[in-house]
Amino acid sequence: MDFSDFISQCAGKWFSQRTSHAIPPQALEAGTCDFWIDLIEPGDAILLERCQAIGLDPAQVTCAIRTHWQGQVGTANHADSGATFSLFVASDSPKQGQFWRWSEDNSDSSVIQGHYHLGQDEALNLSASTDSLRSEERLWFLNPNLRERTSVITHKAGSRYASFCSEIRMGLK
């Protein structure tokens, strides 16, 4: 599987169950959400705008996606929703490169830049850093409609947060 195939396989509507906790262990949090991953066409206006914002030639973009979600998180089971826009640019190898991710929350216009690598085991590894944190995420498919995801976020102050998600495809839209 190449990187574009992996991203294409991510498209659709998904149901996610997440378990997460702080390290050292604190109260366990669990949550569920529905989320959608939409593939972005090369000439899309938002894609062109985002490329211009970071000084990137749109012809270099390998692929772009929009992810949006709504669900219940935490011990209080409060509602949460949001959206992100991500674009990917391959480096010398088609299985690795850089990515940029924007929150589509109007109060947060920051962009996160990171690196991706699709391993021989067909798991996608994403890593990114900001001034305040570092994130490591790993995604893989058990079958075309079942995806697993782990992540560890390390804050500069030293605290860490880990999560595991099991994600089931509910359809293509």
Automatic annotation (TrEMBL):
Keyword field contains Glycosyltransferase: no
MF terms per GO, please?
Answer: lyase activity
Q: Which Pfam families match?
A: CpeS
Keywords in alphabetical order: Lyase
- What EC number(s) does its UniProt record assign? 4.-.-.-
- Highest taxon of source: Bacteria
Q: Does the keyword Lyase apply?
A: yes
Family to which the UniProt record says this protein belongs: Belongs to the CpcS/CpeS biliprotein lyase family.
What does the UniProt function comment say about this protein?
Covalently attaches a chromophore to Cys residue(s) of phycobiliproteins.
List the protein's name.
Chromophore lyase CpcS/CpeS
Q: Which gene encodes it?
A: cpcS
